[in-house]
Amino acid sequence: NTIVAIVPAAGSGQRMQSTMPKQYIKIGHATILEHTLQKLLSIPQISQIIVAISSDDDYFSTLEIASHPKIKTTIGGDTRAASVLAGLRLADETSWALVHDAARPCVCVSDIEMLIKTVFDYQQGAILATKITDTIKKSISSTDCTPVQIEQTCDRRFLWAAATPQMFNVKDLTTCLIRAEQQHVELTDEASAIEYGGGHPILVECKRDNIKVTRLEDLPLATLYLQEQGY
Ligand code: CTP
Ligand code: MG
User: Fold this and answer.
1) Which domains does the chain have, with CATH numbers?
2) Which key words are in the record (predicted)?
3) Tag placement on the chain: N or C end, fewer CB within 10 Å?
């Protein structure tokens, strides 16, 4: 039951519109990526952390945390899935992969621990997620064309917003991600690769702190959550 954390951190943060990739923006005393790595480092069951960085990354090697004995880097790919696959290639086939976005620094350590406990108890893959509180409308065509008519209201009692970490065994996840890649299925998380392969991962509810820092307006919120958590 060894766990390898894989941290996709090879994105360029287009939607943040900042000069540096968003994972290197500072919140308080540390960058977003450092906050994320600190959370993972505080869990003793995680034996190694593989960070997938961009081939033209000039920032990672300047961080103090880069020399931590548990942390290794690899070069990510053009998509998040490709970056995760690059990380998986360095992981032992018999271990568990805990994939966590660099851009989610506010995840609660206790929620990660709950995810790990669930995976070990059920011996099945699982992900952190939050219950949907909004009323969700499905439109008759894609959200790219607005205004657009409503097709129907979704039954919220069954809806969750997927977050990370997402934890699967290395072998299954690798197989499913490669299959999805070969069939040109676009994925935004690991669970969808497993689902595509016929699996039904478990949802573990996490606190709403676990936002993905995506746009400029997410920074004040992330700052507040980290402050409240004592970072
Ligand atoms: N990521 C990655 N490799 C890619 C694309 C994304 O490792 N080719 C990582 C990002 O660094 C981030 C996580 O996947 O930690 C989630 O992706 P997202 O929030 O979309 O980040 P970016 O792709 O950097 O942002 P944007 O989509 O706005 O460009
Ligand atoms: Mg992206």
Assistant:
1) 3-228 (3.90.550.10)
2) Isoprene biosynthesis, Nucleotidyltransferase, Transferase
3) N
